Amino acid sequence: THVVTEACIRCKYTDCVAVCPVECFHEGPNFLVIDPAACIDCGVCIPECPVEAIVDEKDLPPHQAEYLELNATLAVQWPVITQSREPLPDADDWADRQDKRALLSA
Ligand code: F3S
After folding, report:
1. How many angstroms does the Cα of residue 62 sit away from the middle of ligand 1?
2. What pLDDT digit, counting tens, does each position of 13-47 carry?
C-alpha cells in the first residue's frame, strides 16, 4: 500500500485525490489517509503532493512507521474524498514544518 505521512498534517492540499484511480483517499479535519484495502500501489499520487507526504510503504522512514497503521485505522473512520478542493487556509505556513504528529486531528 501507499501511505500518507506527517507532511500532510495541517496542509491537506488534496492534489493526490484527483489522480487516484480507485478513490482510496479518506478525509479527516486536517489530514488525508489512504485505505490500504483499496490502494492498488500505482503510485500516481506520489508526485502530485506538493509536500511529498505520500510514500510506498516499503519506503516509509522508520520515524514515520506509525503512519502505516494510522492510515489503515483512520481510513475506516473517515469518509472518502473523491475530488480535490482548496487546501487548508494556512497550508503554506505548515508545509515545511516538522514534528506535526501531535497536531493531527482525528
Ligand atoms: Fe496531503 Fe499531499 Fe494529498 S498534503 S492531501 S497527501 S496532496
Report:
1. 20
2. 999 999 999 999 999 999 999 999 999 999 999 99
CATH of 2-81, one of 3.50.50.60, 2.40.10.270, 3.30.70.20, 3.40.50.720: 3.30.70.20
- Model ipTM? 0.92
Task: From 3, 15, 39, give the residue whose CB has the most ligand 1 atoms within 8 Å, as the site to mutate.
Answer: 15
The stretches of the chain forming alpha helices (DSSP H) are 15-19, 66-77, 91-94
Q: How many residues does the chain have?
A: 106
Residue type for 49, please?
A: C
